[in-house]
Amino acid sequence: MRKFVNDKLLFATHNLGKLEEMRHLFTPYDIEIIGSLDLALNEPEETENTFIGNARIKARAAFEASGLPVLADDSGIEIDALNGAPGVHTADWAETSLGRDFIKAMKYTHDKLERINAPYPRRAQFSCTLVLAWPDRHEESFYGTVKGQLVWPMRGVLGHGFDPIFKPDGYHQTFGEMDRWEKNKISHRAQAVKKLIASCFE
Question: What pTM did the predictor assign?
């Protein structure tokens, strides 16, 4: 594992919520974390069918454009009764002509499960893969997951994406009901970041 010795890290995301979460997770470390919007970087097309493949696309595009070491992620929800879908297509299920609509995506998901009469509990997991890449093309990758089950109707207005219908194992609240910083302690992204920090920053 390569240790990270730079003082600046580019997190390849246009999502301000994700950027704030990452900055919070790295609070103990004297590292400036900037996002793609800070450098007006374009979002590359994600054409792979795995989380690590799409994370690598984002990481490589970002370090080629910026010359900085880059952290990139790809994540999604995988539903057992749908053979792991939507997975890497999680955001695609929310696409509309006016942008992403995750309420629509959650209703669409529930309808699909109802049509196949999926048994309860309807098991699912959030998965995240992180790729830390340097401009010399060296890469380290880390994986995190949190298992749980889907609930209906939607519960909570916090978080983002499929959070209001996902209840992690061992908790009574959905991610959509949890305080964001409590959720960020147990989330799939937090699990991956813990592995990253232990390997490359400590």
Answer: 0.91
